[in-house]
Amino acid sequence: MTKKWWHDKVAYQIYPKSFFDSNGDGIGDLPGIISKLDYLQELGVDILWLSPCYQSPLADQGYDISDYYKIDPRFGTMEDMDCLIAEARKRGMYILMDLVVNHCSDEHLWFQKARQDPEGPYGNFFYLTDKVEGKLPTNWRSYFGGSVWEDLPGTGKQYLHVFHKKQPDLNWENPQVREEIYKNICWWLDKGLGGFRLDAIINIKKALPMRDYEPDREDGLCSMETMLKEASGIGQFLGEMRDRTFRKYDVFTVGEVFNEKPEEIPDFIGENGYFSSMFDFNETIFGASEKGWYASRHITPEEYRRCCFDAQARVGTMGFLSNIIENHDEPRGVSRYIPEGDCCPESKKMLAGLNFLLRGIPFIYQGQELGMENVPFTSIDEIDDISTLDEYRTAREAGLSEEEALKAVAFYSRDNARTPMQWSGNAHAGFTTGTPWLRVNPNYTTIHAAAQMKDPDSVRSFYKQLIALRKSPEYKETIVYGTLEPVWEEQPNLMAYYRKGERTLLVMGNFQRERRSVVIPGGYKKVLLNNYKELGEEGEKLSLNGYQFLVLEV
Ligand code: TEU
Ligand code: CA
């Protein structure tokens, strides 16, 4: 395998709106990120993925772009962006932008022109069809609820939007659309970006000709996944995009890929894949129901382990997955994966370690390094996210009471991850001197960066140790390139695996509050990491505390 600069890196996702507000308007911004680069460098991360900060009406928090060549004034200016790229480089860090090209905003010039003249060239930038009264073109359900079809006012036409109606899908079948996208990508890469994260990329290829599928709910609509399963030929688009853009630059790209077929993995992330890497979402999609969030099943520790190992087995050494515990679309991982009532510094560190040392590129989402938790929402009025509001409606329509519906959607709400970063115990967690756009999690008084930076036993300090271990000259080769072999799979609530390369490491987490003992076959040489101060040993046996996590060299 050819070695690449990004193989041994650690990535960190920034959600700009909630990271740090430099000017007191309650909205995080680029100068805010610049002022926190030293914080990030001290943590040890190298690649910074920024959720979108392009010009946008923010109907879906920036995932609805109205100008791909501009920074939204709420986030700053293009000079700020250039400065961020340069300041990051000085510190050996790389900036990834979010590439949102399945759709744009309905306020983008292209869409406005399409509306003015649907038969003109811009009409073909989108999926437009003649409206037939009383009949939808297809019965596909939008990710955010309702039909994917919306009237294009004054034209007698309808347009396709698989996400929000303010996010019209771009017609990738049209070569002019693709040209515009490649031009934009290269324009950004010429600025010296480290690469891109590719948003919702699996949606760019529709199954054509479009048709209805079997409905899966009372609304007569079908999930987008049903259509996507039928679509083939996405590789032509992705291969062309790679050749016209990324390949000419030595950049890192990570795809937001769901439901890939196992035989496609080498095409996606092999040596010459469409992307450098793609996210492992196996854990996040587990237990999902086609009925909606309210019917989803919470994951158990054993299922979590199974999901991680299955994803690892599918990819093997074919490429590098990007491993996450959470992101801006998910609840906080510590609240989701640690059994209820057991969320504490030890269990948070265990979850961190088990995920971080999997083979692949570790991604940390802002605040994850502090062990930030879900929000105790008490009313649906506290929620801003359009996806959660839709899921709440769905739950209510299915007959859940207000209280039950809130409880169900609060657990999965995207707003759990979108509350402001907890910098200090001061007002609004030190995020802003004004009024934050989204209320801070009330637990900021106890969970915040200022305290954790001083405390060698904090969750953040543990993340620093994990990062330092991954980068250490002795263990780097093994952690980056070594194979992963699960062990003790027959034992409940114990997640353990070998990493084998130049050296052999045994990583284990006792995923339960009860103690247990394990016998290390052949004993061990050295303890590299331990989330407790002590390690119980009785002869051959190691006795593990609840949620104890160890990395041993064996
Ligand atoms: O998400 C794509 C995606 O597949 C969503 O269905 C995701 O599962 C959903 O947000 C969960 O509620 C990407 C972005 O990450 C997300 O923030 C955007 O809203 C979406 O694309 C549209 O751009
Ligand atoms: Ca601001």
Topology:
Elements: E1 11-14, H1 30-35, H2 37-43, E2 47-50, E3 54-55, E4 67-71, H3 78-90, E5 94-99, H4 109-116, E6 128-130, E7 149-152, E8 157-160, H5 175-189, E9 195-198, H6 224-230, H7 234-244, E10 252-255, H8 265-269, E11 277-279, H9 282-285, H10 301-315, E12 320-323, H11 333-337, H12 345-356, E13 361-365, H13 386-397, H14 402-412, H15 415-418, H16 449-454, H17 459-471, H18 476-481, E14 483-487, E15 494-500, E16 504-510, E17 516-519, E18 526-530, E19 536-538, E20 541-544, E21 549-553
Parallel strand pairs: 1-2, 1-13, 2-5, 5-9, 9-10, 10-11, 11-12, 12-13
Antiparallel strand pairs: 3-4, 6-8, 7-8, 14-15, 15-16, 16-21, 17-20, 18-21, 19-20
Helix pairs in contact: 12-17, 13-14
Bound molecules: 1-O-alpha-D-glucopyranosyl-D-fructose and calcium ion (CA).
Residues 21-23, 25, 27, 29 line the site of calcium ion.
* Number of β-strand runs: 21
Helix percent reads 25-40%
What is the mean pLDDT?
A: 97
Q: Strand pairing plus helix content: what structural class?
A: alpha/beta
Number of helices: 18
* Uncertain regions spanning at least 5 consecutive residues: none
Strand percentage lies at 15-25%
Euclidean distance between termini CA atoms: 26 Å
Q: How large is the radius of gyration?
A: 23 Å
Instruction: List cofactors, ions and other ligands.
Output: 1-O-alpha-D-glucopyranosyl-D-fructose, calcium ion
Lateral strand order in the biggest sheet: 1-2-5-9-10-11-12-13
Give the overall shape.
globular
Largest sheet, in brief, is: 8 strands, parallel, barrel
